[in-house]
Amino acid sequence: MSGYSRHAVQANNTYKPLYKTGIKNGFPAVKFGSANGVKLTTPAFSLSTVSVYIVTQRISVDVTYPIILVQDDKNSGINIQSENSVTTFRYVLGNSDIAGSALINGNTYLLSFLASTTNIYAWINTISQGSKNNSGGNTARSKTISLGEGSGNRYTGYIMEVIIFSDYHSDNERLNVMKYLNKKWAIW
Fold this sequence. Notes:
The protein is 8% helix and 47% strand. By secondary structure, the chain is mainly beta. β1 (18-24) and β2 (27-32) form a beta hairpin. The mean pLDDT is 88.
């Protein structure tokens, strides 16, 4: 659900992810990965700076580049994927990639990704995964966001919560959102 009517939806019943109750800390989650095409997609909207927070639990890695969240496609806009050996945070055409720690199947994580017009930053739980110069710069364009798959690269796991802000958060704002999500989901 979105406060701005940008709900993530799937109209085709064949490709709807599964809604599961009581997955983590008594809360439900959406399970992805049963087949190619299982994903949720938002309407198109414009982002130039962004703060993204995702609570997720990977079940397995069935494809080479399993995509948790992608804007437009895996090589443009925002892309967060969970491979066997690395979690990649990408912003704009692969020019600005942060290669973070791998996710362990069955563990719950908070992935935080912030992009200003000059830099990108990533965290897994409370651990910084680094920063990079945002060589893509200000990339405001109207694009959809997909959860659970992009370009046929399906994610096999649960997505508990996604929060996307269309502005770049200060350290204090980021920490407040992270604390809220940790308290709700008991991540660390």
